[in-house]
């Protein structure tokens, strides 16, 4: 299908997309930003997160870590605290590590050579293309989720995008305007985010309507083809919210690697909590349970029952309830803290 675009058609598609972008493109804080560090932060935050959620995080992040040096020198806990609530925390850990790579290996200058960029933690081909086309106007294609959807519709791709990545990269590279890669890529992302949306593509306003195979077949929402749905398991977890006699609460840090690495949490256990209680809180007195908390990750869901305990212990890991805000927590555990605040369970007994 890609080979069917003649030079004239490609020129027309580029021109019509750029014209549309001039009129309808979004105004975003990182758009036309020459500081590569700022563009890089935006690209990482935008992976799997929508623009409206990203903007306040982006602004707070730059206020706290205005340069790559500031980020590299920061404590991981401060980095995770800034990311708290944005999800996919590996992005924050990788950004932090990559900043240290830039400072140590590249004297603080973000590399502009594709091979070197791809050595940085958390930067793959589409992120590299996004950063260099946006900040330096280099002719590198992108293929994020929005772009995959637009291209899959454009060529009426008959298999799920994940099974045809080479073909989609080929399409993105073929379409890219070598004269104006910055605006072209930004326009393509805006097209996916604002017109070629998942559920209700606004084809009548689309600059590529005449070239879009899915539209011409009257089936835009039949594309991209979906991979068969896998059953997502639910894990039933009990969290022990232990208060001591000074009304401090016990928290622990997750290992640095893996899901939610480096975040803090209340001790928890899938299934029976008794062995954990015996181990950490001997003599714990059960008080009551809070409302069950639900959260969905990419490959599984969790259902957490928070149980309040009183114990006669102190020392390492015990913090005052007011100081919990200094620690980065996952969404599920933040929901538990909100309930604790609402019910004022932290007040001295
Ligand atoms: S015509 Fe419709 S389906 Fe095709 S690219 Fe445009 S908005 Fe998407």
Describe the protein's architecture and organization:
By secondary structure, the protein is an alpha+beta fold. The protein folds into two domains: 2-222, Endonuclease III, domain 1 (Orthogonal Bundle); 234-343, Nucleoside Triphosphate Pyrophosphohydrolase. It is built from 14 helices and nine strands. Strand 7 and strand 8 form a beta hairpin. The protein is elongated, with a radius of gyration of 24 Å.
How would you sum up this structure in a few lines?
The chain is α+β, with helices and mostly antiparallel strands.
Name the features.
349 residues; alpha+beta; Endonuclease III, domain 1; Nucleoside Triphosphate Pyrophosphohydrolase; 5-stranded mixed beta sheet; two-stranded antiparallel sheet; 14 helices; 43% helix; 12% strand; binds iron/sulfur cluster
Write the SSE topology.
Blueprint: H1 7-24, H2 36-46, H3 51-64, H4 68-73, H5 76-83, H6 90-105, H7 114-117, H8 125-136, H9 145-154, H10 165-175, H11 181-195, H12 213-216, E1 234-243, E2 248-250, E3 252-253, E4 264-265, E5 268-270, H13 274-280, E6 285-289, E7 293-296, E8 301-310, E9 318-320, H14 331-343
Parallel strand pairs: 1-8
Antiparallel strand pairs: 1-5, 2-9, 3-4, 6-8, 7-8
Helix pairs in contact: 1-11, 2-3, 2-8, 8-11, 9-11
Shape: elongated
Strand content: 5-15%
Please identify which CATH superfamily of the largest domain we are dealing with: Hypothetical protein, domain 2
Uncertain runs are none
Q: How many discrete domains?
A: 2
Number of helices: 14
What is the string of SSEs from the N terminus onward?
Answer: HHHHHHHHHHHHEEEEEHEEEEH
Name of the CATH class of the largest domain: Mainly Alpha
Report the mean per-residue pLDDT as an integer. Answer: 94
Q: Would you report the number of β strands?
A: 9
Which cofactor or ligand species appear? Answer: iron/sulfur cluster
